Amino acid sequence: MIRPAMHAVAAALLLLPTVLSAQLGSYNPEPGPRATVAIVNARIVPVVGAEIARGTLVIADGVIQAVGAGVAVPTGARVIDGSGLSVYPGMMDAGTDMGLTEIGSSGAAATIDNAETGNWNPNAQAIWGINPHSAHIGVTRVVGITHVVSRPGGSILSGQAALINLAGYTAPGMAVVPRVASVIQLPSQGGGRGGGGGRFGGGQTPTPAGGMSPLDSLKQLLADANAYGAAVAAHAEDSSLPRLDTDLVLASLLPVLSGEMPVIFPAESESQIKEAVAFAEEQGLSPIIVGARDAWRMTEYLVEHKVPVLFSNTLSLPSRDDDPYDANFAAAAKLAAAGVRFAITSGEGNPDVRNLPYVAGMAAAFGLSHEDAIKSVTLWPAEIFGVADRLGSLEVGKMANLVVTTGDLLEARTDTRYLFIDGRDVPLGTKHSELYDTFKDRK
Question: pTM of this prediction?
Answer without folding.
Answer: 0.87
